Amino acid sequence: MTHPTIETLTPATWNVIPGEAPDGASQACIGVLALQGDFLEHSMMLRHLGVQPVEVRLPRDLDTVDALILPGGESTTMVRLMDLHDFREPLQRRVREGMPIWGTCAGMILMAKSLAEDRPEPLGLMDFTVTRNAYGRQLESFETDLDIPVLGDPALHTFFIRAPGFLELGPEVEILARLADGMPVAAREGAKLATAFHPELTNDFRFHAYFVAIANEALAQKKE
Question: N or C: more exposed end of the chain, with fewer CB within 10 A?
Answer without folding.
Answer: C
